[in-house]
Amino acid sequence: MHTVVVGTAGVTAADVIDVARGAGRVELDEGAVRALADAREVIEALAAKPEPVYGVSTGFGALATRHISPDLRAQLQRNIVRSHAAGMGPAVEREVVRALMFLRLKTVCSGRTGVRPEVARTMADVLNAGITPVVHEFGSLGCSGDLAPLSHCALTLMGEGDAEGPDGVVGPAGELLAAHGISPVELREKEGLALLNGTDGMLGMLVMALDDLERVYRSADVTAALSLEALLGTDKVLAPELHAIRPHPGQGVSARNMLRVLAGSQLTGHHQDDAPRVQDAYSVRCAPQVAGAGRDTLAYARTVAERELAAAVDNPVVLADGRVESNGNFHGAPVAYVLDFLAIAAADLGSIAERRTDRLLDKNRSHGLPPFLAEDAGVDSGLMIAQYTQAALVSEMKRLAVPASVDSIPSSAMQEDHVSMGWSAARKLRTAVDSLHRIVAVELYAATRAIELRTEATGLEAAPASRAVIDAVRAAGVQGPGPDRFLSPDLASADAFVRRGGVLDAVEKVVGPLA
């Protein structure tokens, strides 16, 4: 098991993926422990003074005007966790909660929050034990942090609420902690607030979405190339000199990927034969432009994620000179915007993939392929309804592309009068990414069948990379041309093949790594 060391300088996206999805073990470095102790001294000095300090000796949000006496401050910190753990709806995925906890630990270890080292160590212990707090779908407005989701995590540290054990069984958090020899934390001044006040949920989901989208975009370059090949299209539109004169980086990358997949094909370039066409349709010819624009969106979103991963988001924060200052860094706008932007890009990639699938199935536009790629059209319906399913997924993705970040509902008696809705943007992006895998899988299924039918009819050979994909997807249990059969299992197998990187594994064995 890989060990991820958390220090004061933040963590990487790879660290987040490792802990969230790979159960990487977490350790604190000595510098982080010193920074935690130093910041705690500042908080305790302020707590001893008569002057009120937000989060240390006052109430929260619209209740910040009340000065809290020393004998009530431990209760204050417990109460903020209990009252803010107000999520509703289904539990979110285990990997999301692990990313959420890990990223809050990252900020705590920056030494900017005033949390004691023993609290940070307990956070690491909970992650390492595989204990996952139950966090609900609804409760975060993406401002003042992902308050309700983080509160449910803090509740587990206190030994309260419900959590999921490493065996997947949900039970009382206190019992799970005891079973793993972990003592619940007794929160002190500032600590309850510090555990709740960050963009960690939306950031964790952004990092994981980027990880998924980077793979699915490369897979979509492959399926676009297969569709072009099956339609007897021309690969001349992929020539580097054409993309150099419109120098968007992602466009050039997608074009190069497609060109490499199609190298050695005998099927490309026949668009002027039996059914002459001067140019291929936009969904074929403009594939690099659309996928490339999405790649450039990913690059920008990655920049935002990297900045946030290096950030210490809390309010108030302990500065290097010992001052404790209120701020608005918890506002999720930077993350929310790119989450929405990615949903738009993903929807468009799904849309263009569906248009290519529809073209493969339409005998009036497929240039000689049988209707719906059926064995005996009329008796067989072929892939007619597979395209319906794909269209339904695309329609949902278009709805999910409506931005969440333009909405704001004031909260906390108008003290928090503008919020980011970043958590909501992240939740819908996860659904969109899930749908995009299925859409690409349907194009893969249609394009591989179409190429097999085309090579059988013409005697021409597909590209070696295309042949490798077809062989691999058939070996994965996705059947080829033939009479109608129960289609759903084939589509599920194609989806699983795309998700585990089967498309890329097959192609890259022939042409080397795709960009």
Automatic annotation (TrEMBL):
UniProtKB keywords: Cytoplasm, Histidine metabolism, Lyase
Record flagged with keyword Lyase: yes
One GO process term, biological-process aspect: L-histidine catabolic process to glutamate and formamide
Modified residues (2,3-didehydroalanine (Ser)): 144
Pathway listed: Amino-acid degradation; L-histidine degradation into L-glutamate; N-formimidoyl-L-glutamate from L-histidine: step 1/3
Processing and modification events after translation: Contains an active site 4-methylidene-imidazol-5-one (MIO), which is formed autocatalytically by cyclization and dehydration of residues Cys-Ser-Gly.
Cellular compartment(s): Cytoplasm
UniProt xrefs under Pfam families: Lyase_aromatic
CDD domains found in the cross-reference section: PAL-HAL
Predominant localisation class: cytoplasm
Keyword Ribosomal protein: no
5-imidazolinone (Ala-Gly) cross-link, chain position(s): 143-145
Catalytic activity field: L-histidine = trans-urocanate + NH4(+)
A GO molecular-function annotation: phenylalanine ammonia-lyase activity
GO CC annotations on file: cytoplasm
Sequence similarity: Belongs to the PAL/histidase family.
Protein name: Histidine ammonia-lyase
Organism placement in taxonomy: Bacteria, Bacillati, Actinomycetota, Actinomycetes, Kitasatosporales
Recorded name of the encoding gene: hutH
